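Lecture 7 notes: from sequence to structure.

We start with a single chain of 350 residues. Read the sequence below before looking at the structure.
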Amino acid sequence: MDTHGLSRAPAPDAAVFPPFVARAPWWGGDLQTLRSVLIRRHATLAEYPVERLALPLDDGSGDRLLAVLNRPAREAEPARPLVILVHGLTGLEDSFYLRNSAAHLLALGFPVLRLNLRGAGPSRPYCRFQYHAGRSEDFAAALAALPPPLTAAGMVAVGYSLGGNMLLKYLGEGGAAVPLRAAVSVSAPLDLAATSRWMMRRRNALYQGYLLRAMRREALAPGAELSADERGVIRDARSIWEFDHRFSAPRNGFAGAEDYYERNTARRFLDGIAVPTLVIYALDDPWIPAPAYLARDWRRNPNLVPLLPPSGGHVGFQGSDPRAAWHDRCIARFLPAVAPEGRPQREREQ
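Now the structure, written as tokens:
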């Protein structure tokens, strides 16, 4: 039993998960990625009770993170842990991958909270400042601000892409003290500097242009507290590296892009993770380079369960079962194994 009174089961072996088999005609990393970007079939969540939460941050800024909570149509008995979903770069609560994961988990009886990071989506009007790849203190403050009845059966978290990097950093910083039973990262950039350089390759010009336009819109949206110089830098940046070097890094107290990347990159924190954590990544991801995953000796930390199929793209994983993405099926298999149904033993005994 950990310091928060929540039983943590050991991480399961990777062999218990289904293999990834791409669904025709989405073969290869680019098609897997583009399908997810272009064919955004948002799952309907209308049948699930919904509630808006505003979570204050504790840094004196006055910023608040907005989140949307959906509960299962029928409460499970015994209660299941709350699943917190964290979006990636330029994402928000209604990003298609968050909605699809939420629908899959809600149907299985899990309550689901979709969190908007600082300055993202509905959080933008309530935030003077902006999230970044390593702003794990915001995530810690959001967890602490959740109503106790909502978290009584425990919490687990799933982070996607840049949100996955932030989540892994948070887990490694906190070790056994984090109030989570388990976690999952999907398509996270373990090496931020290598990912920034990877995106600047000619073959990724369309991807980088797409992301950079979205980053500009997000950073300049009404509510952001920016100087005239910062607005000019945001508009003029011609690469993600330049955006981070001239805006993200100095705005958040880093010496430049390389300093920002090195101090916040997930690979530095993996050995400190003390809760069962599923790490999902496709080796043909066109956005995130594979070497950081391949060079890692995953046996060094038995709490980490790597699922590294040769194909799947970036947050794609359109597999043989059309009802749910492969990563959602793996998440649904992982969570009951490491976060069993029911309230903590301490509560049942009272």
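Strands lie at 50-56, 64-70, 82-86, 112-115, 155-160, 182-186, 277-280, 304-307. Keep this in mind for problem set 3.
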